[in-house]
Amino acid sequence: MKHYLSAFWRENRKFLLILASIVCFKSAIADLNSISGRSMQPTLLDGDKVWVNKLAYDLKIPFTDIALLSTGEPEHGDIVIIDSTAAGKRLVKRIIGLPGDTVYMRNNVLMVNEIIVDFEVLEENRDAVTIEEHLFDSTHQAMLSPSRNNRSTRSYGPAQVPEDHFFVLGDNRDNSADSRLYSFIPREQIVGRSSSVVFSLDSEQSFRPRSGRFLAELD
Q1: Over the Cα atoms of the chain, what is R_g?
Q2: Cis check: omega of the bond before 162, within 30 degrees of 0
Q3: Band of pLDDT at residue 4, cut at 50, 70 and 90
Q4: How many domains, in total, are found in the chain?
Q5: How far is CA 161 from CA 56, 70, 155, 164, 166, in A?
Q6: What is the arithmetic mean of pLDDT over 68-78?
Q7: I need a surface site. Which of 52, 135, 183, 193 has the fewest CB within 10 A?
Q8: The CATH number of the domain where 140 resides is what?
Q9: Which of 54, 60, 84, 93 is flagged as catalytic?
Q10: Tens digits of per-residue pLDDT, 93-133?
């Protein structure tokens, strides 16, 4: 057996080293993440594949949650990928509240630190209202439902974000399971930040590529 393994290593070591490098790269440096569902519309669509920068906030030991070095801190408006233990799955949401912030929502009007988050209506129809929201130095789009069926998620708080935690929301405010359901997100559960769509496949159109979303930047 030892002779066989030695021969196998000699014959395949280049391939195995390349494979190990790719796996470590995906674990600790960067990866792709699939978007499933509508919780981040209109920013992200079902079928999007987004780039995940895992070095945005931490340098971690591959295959672990152990951080060797902090490389940055999440900011208002960042789109983050979260390995949520409360949800039992990976989430993609937008950071609204930083540690120490007080977050308050009343009928989908958002306040952070007693400041009403300014917004303007971009589009309105019977299915949705699309707004542009100005969260401190960040500007992004969000979607509201004109339906009266989701009132329970339209109000929240006021609540102060604990140390080393973050408050996150989906851009599709009336169709998102986020901090309103799962509470604050611990810092160590944030995998990385996404700022672009790599490619996108439309499940409603036989998984045809959405050409306009190829390498599209995210707000």
Answers
A1: 20
A2: no
A3: low
A4: 1
A5: 21, 20, 16, 9, 6
A6: 95
A7: 183
A8: 2.10.109.10
A9: 93
A10: 999 999 999 999 999 999 999 999 999 999 999 889 999 99
39 flagged as catalytic: yes
As given in the structure block, the two tokens for residue 62 are 């591959």
pTM: predicted TM-score of the whole model, two decimal places: 0.91
Helix (H) or strand (E) holding 95: strand 89-97
And the tokens for 43? 């920013």
Mean pLDDT, the chain, rounded, equals 91
| Termini Cα distance of the chain | 55
- The rounded distance, in Å, linking the Cα atoms of 70 and 215 is 27
Q: Residues 164-189: what's their mean pLDDT? A: 96
Do 58 and 73 touch, CB atoms closer than 8 A? no
93 given a catalytic annotation: yes
DSSP result, 115-140:
EEPEEEEEEE-SS-EEEEEEETTEEE
**Owning domain of residue 163:** 2-217
C-alpha 213: how far from chain center: 17
| Per-position DSSP letters for 152-205, written without gaps between them | GGS-EEEEEPPTTEEEEE-SBTTS--SHHHH-PEEGGGEEEEE-EEEEEEEGGG
Cβ atoms of residues 196 and 215 within 8 Å: yes
- In this prediction, residue 8 carries a pLDDT of 66
Task: Give me the pLDDT at residue 77, please.
Answer: 97
CA 15 to chain centre: 33
Give the three-state DSSP class for 142: strand
Averaged pLDDT for residues 10-16:
76
